[in-house]
Amino acid sequence: MRIHIRRTGGFAGIERHAEIDTADRADAVDWHTLADRALAAAHAAPPTGVPDGFRYTLTVDDRTAYCTDPQLTDDQRELITRVLKEGA
After folding, report:
1. Could you list the residue range(s) of the whole structural domain that residue 50 is in?
2. Which GO MF terms does the UniProt record name (predicted)?
């Protein structure tokens, strides 16, 4: 499973992105579960966020969904944080 996160917006408007490939990871099942829960609560189209807030595009394999700060679920926040921290 490939998990790609794209973050846009914020005060400076700097885009950031990262990707994790879970294929050879020992914790792949945990990543899959977290990604499924994060996508289930996301939007099919980019929602309107708050001014200067972050907007996220979550892509898991061939599925894409959208979410914004401050309306992130705990699962979305965890997935985004982990991918942006560990991904390349």
Report:
1. 2-86
2. metallopeptidase activity
